Amino acid sequence: MSPIIKRGVVEEGSQTLGNVDQHQKARTNSSQLRALAGRTQLPVLRKLLSLMEGQHYSARAGQGWEFMDMAEYKPGDDVKDIDWAATARTGTPIVKRFEASANVQVVLVVDTGRSMSALAPSGESKEAIALTICQAIAWLASSRGDQVGLVSGCQGRMRHMPARSGNAHIELILRRLEEDIDLRSPSSDLETLLARVQAATHRRSLIVLVTDETHPQPTPRALELLKRLSVNHRMIVMQVADADPTKLPKGTRIVDVDAGPLPGFLLEDSQIASEAAVRAEQSRQVVRQLLDIPGITRVSVSSSAEVVRTLLSALERENRVR
After folding, report:
1. Which of 51, 63, 160, 245 is the most exposed place for a label (fewest CB within 10 A)?
2. Strand 57-62 vs strand 94-101: parallel, antiparallel, or unpaired?
3. How far apart are alpha carbons 20 and 210 in whole angstroms?
4. Beta bridge partners of residue 108, listed in sequence order
5. Which residues contact 135 (CB under 8 A, 6 or more apart)?
6. For residue 169, what are the CA distances in angstroms to 7, 91, 146, 259?
7. How far is CA 112 from the centre of its chain?
8. Which residues pair with 153 in a beta bridge?
9. How many Å apart are CA 212 and CA 258, to the nearest integer?
10. 155 closest CA partner among 125, 185, 180, 117
11. β-pair partners for 298
């Protein structure tokens, strides 16, 4: 039973399960990015933008920016940065070093496996919530003048769009994601996706991984890749929650995205439902433990309505940790 809960379900007859060739997805445009701002209260927007401002520091020493540390004077250092009090105490020239302010490169890393087309607790598809997450982050980045890139994919299918600025580029990213997340897509492949991010992202970036609560799978390779990325970049993992099929109305015919239709008795037997819930929570806990790495901030999202609040929480936590 646990694999059924883990992989995600869709309600038969729902729009998500409809004929994919005839299903016309709403296209993303600049008005949608503006609509996101319109749905968000001004104080929240100001706080989000302020938190993004907090991301705008590079890892290299510079002059005239936020204080980083103190170090011995070396040839080439600006004499204006000498801290004379510290120099007098140590008897050695000491300079103050600063972090140089710079625009952030934001990389959206999106799982496009077919489980992302399954239902979330809100009744929406996980795809809809994932796209809202990407819209919100892209809008914030665009407001700051940052560049946004995309690395997305699943088994046997990867997409890389180098980071660029401008709403036209963001709209193209969102359209490609709409096209790629589909019930006919292959299964998720987070190991290959993370490896592609590592190979493609050379500049220190803010990486936002969008997947569900059962990914990444806890393998040594995934752990190694996550640790490397967390050292070289700032990383936020936003997991879209799965719907619990045992809590859907009785009589609802439900289809697992991998296993097919679920027998009705599985959903009506309270003991089986309870055991499945325990197994599903154990699976999620294993993934949470995998992501408990310094430098990685993890949050879970259950609906599109929660995205802005959850993103606010993630940015606050990430900035506090830094």
Report:
1. 63
2. antiparallel
3. 23
4. 150, 208
5. 28, 32, 33, 36, 174
6. 32, 54, 12, 37
7. 12
8. 111, 158
9. 15
10. 185
11. 237
| Cα distance between residue 29 and residue 319, in whole Å | 30
Q: Which two tokens stand for residue 93?
A: 């020239």
Please check whether residue 179 is in contact with residue 202, taking contact to mean a CB–CB distance below 8 angstroms: no
Q: Which residue from 143, 126, 135 is spatially nearest to 239, judged by alpha carbons?
A: 126
DSSP state of 104: P
Angle between helices 126-144 and 167-180 (to 10 degrees): 170
pLDDT tens figures, 214-247: 899 999 999 999 999 999 888 999 999 988 777 7
What distance in Å separates the CA atoms of residue 191 and residue 221, rounded to the nearest whole number?
Answer: 7
The answer to whether the beta carbons of residues 133 and 302 sit under 8 Å apart is no
Task: Say how far apart CA 250 and CA 124 lie, in whole Å.
Answer: 19
Side chain identity at 129, as an amino acid letter? Answer: I
Amino acid at position 123, single letter: G
